[in-house]
Amino acid sequence: MGKLNFKISEFIESDVAKKNSINNFPDIQSLDNILNLIVFCMQPIRDLINAPVIITSGYRSASVNKLVLGANNSQHLTGQAADFIVKGMSPSEIIAVIKNSKIEFDQLINEYNRWVHVSYNSVKNRNQILKIL
Ligand SMILES: [Zn+2]
Hints:
Helices cover about 30% and strands about 20% of the residues. It starts with 14 loop residues before the first helix and ends with a strand. By secondary structure, the chain is an alpha+beta fold. The chain is globular and about 40 Å long. About 35% of the residues are buried. A 5-stranded mixed beta sheet has the order 1-2-4-3-5. Zinc ion (ZN) binds near residues 57, 76, 81 and 117.
């Protein structure tokens, strides 16, 4: 196994939390989920794309999720999901590359053609690809 390109802090630090003085530190179960998301999903994506992967939203506490108008059942609330961008690649290009790999994921969503949402569930992955416009 190669090196990890991600720090857990990249999945926890939130501008919205900072601006609103909200504690966005995950509970232990969510930390475990973030670890699984990094090891089994984000790092394989990073290795596949071979370019910097910028996390724009990772774990969200309930207060942060409300402020960003996240879904009530969002996997961001449990550390199972992250939104990301790759400079020079559109979300549909990123999704096409992941789709043609053997990387496991729960959901892979092109959100508004602006970023990719990916989730990983260590119990069962649905391998769903969706688009929200
Ligand atoms: Zn998301």
